Amino acid sequence: MSPSARSRRPETSRPRPGTRGTVLWAIVLLAAAVAVPARAQTLRIVVTGASDDPLVARLAAEVRALGFEPVFRELPPDAILPLELDLAARAEDAAAALHVLPGDDAAHIWLVDRTSGETVLRIVPADPTATDASALLALRTVELLRASLLEPPPEPPPAPPTPPEPPTPPEPPPTPPEPPPTPPPSVPEEPARLSLEFAPAVLAGTFDHAPALAIHVGTHVRLTDLLGISVLGLVPAVPLELAITAGEARVYPGLLAAGIRLTFAGPGDRWLPFVEGGGAAGFADVRASPAAGFVARPELVISGAPYLRGGVAVALGSVFRLRFDLLLAWCVPSTAVRIDGRSVGDWGPFLLDAGLGLEVVAW
To answer: Residue 12: phi, psi to the nearest 5?
Structure first.
């Protein structure tokens, strides 16, 4: 074997002097990275008061025993406890803040829990038989802290089972709509049955002298829309005057009649034409004023007379009507007026009456 071959033996590799130190530093950094999150998970609790106070020191020891980190902070004497405790917990990024006010009769423990947002005030009566009042008070305070932070909230009672909904009854069939109420039968209005007539009239019984004036008075009872009964009278108002040299005579003619009337319209119509016929009794009251040397003898002449009457009425409203009628009668016998045996004038046998007046619907 040549010397050159011997000099080429494989050499064992050794770590460099700086490599071991690098590995150790990596292990330390890894452990620190693991420890930092674990420490970051420790909750901070603010404990008010000086750290050298026996009660505060004992309270901090109990907080550490629970696994929390106590943070000491002093409050001003006039501090508003709920508000100042909450501000202190926020300033120290703490989960809660404790403040204990010892007294002779009782101690007031204030706890502000930021995780739940609650503020709790617990009043603990003093125990005169306790040998170490600070230790007892610290223990009570920590129990309150443990109940607020460590114990899970009580589960709400289970909701009562929802009763099954009753089966929905089937909808009833739709009710057919009720027929509209039948209106009561209309009762026809009772037509007017009774009317009264009043009119001035012109009465003529001869063409040789002027006519007389009379008052027409009558009544009409309507039995049906077509048929009715009428009664009328012509009362003399201004007589017929006759005169000759032998004297003067005044004739007061009149008439009483009753008949059947036919009306050719309904009671509610405005225009009511009618025709009427029947029997009458005509009369003429003759009163004479003879000249000197003559004797007068008054006389009342009565004669029978069938008559025919027609006309039309116009309704002026529900009560009054304006009417015009014409009557024609035949008086038998006629009336002859004579003075000293000489004829002064005749009345009849025909009788013509024309009237324009009012009709009043009475019933």
So the answer is: -80, 130
